[in-house]
Design brief:
The chain has 101 residues and is mainly alpha-helical. It contains four helices and no strands. The model has no long low-confidence stretch (mean pLDDT 76).
């Protein structure tokens, strides 16, 4: 029987999130996953020598980092000053979170 209500729903979502994010320690993972990583290592090392590929991957990585930084600044701006007024509580909580991290 499924019960409704905010407490039951939050418990259900917490259980589901824990179930889907729980990871098996590396010692108990199947060996074939580690073999796949080891099999791809020479290919990755061979790509590091190719200057054209390295330049292209550097450009792609710079673009991705730029987009992530732009989104972080945009969402931070919208969180700290939602209506043009500075929300000091949000600034304080962000500072505490940054300090505790």
């Amino acid at each position: 029987m499924f019960r409704s209500g905010p407490l039951w729903q939050s418990g259900f979502h917490l259980k589901t999130a824990f179930h889907h994010t729980h990871r098996v320690p590396i010692q108990k993972q199947p060996v074939y996953r580690l073999r796949g990583i080891a099999a791809g290592a020479p290919f990755v090392e061979a790509m590091a020598v190719n200057l054209r590929l390295q330049t292209a991957l550097t450009g792609v990585m710079a673009a991705i980092v730029g987009v992530i930084l732009n989104l972080a600044v945009w969402f931070g701006h919208k969180e700290i000053s939602p209506g043009g007024q500075i929300d000091y509580f949000a600034v304080a909580m962000s500072g505490i979170g940054l300090f505790l991290h």
